[in-house]
Amino acid sequence: MFKKLYYKIFKSDQKNVLKLQNKINFFKEKYEDKIIEINNIIKNKTQLNFFHSGPLGDLIYSLPLIKKLSESHKCNLYVNLNKKFTYDYYKHTGNGYYIDERTFKFLFPLLKTQKSLNIIKKYEDEKIDINLDLFREIPISFTFNSPRWFFAITGEHFDLNNPSLFVDDHAEIKNKIVILRSFRFRNIYINYDFLKNYNDLLYVGVEEEYQDLKKNIPNLEMYNCKDLLEMAQIIKSSKFFLGNMSVGYALSETLKVPRLLEASPETPFVQPVGNNGFDFFFQPHFEKLFKYLNDNF
Question: What is the pTM of this model?
Answer without folding.
Answer: 0.91
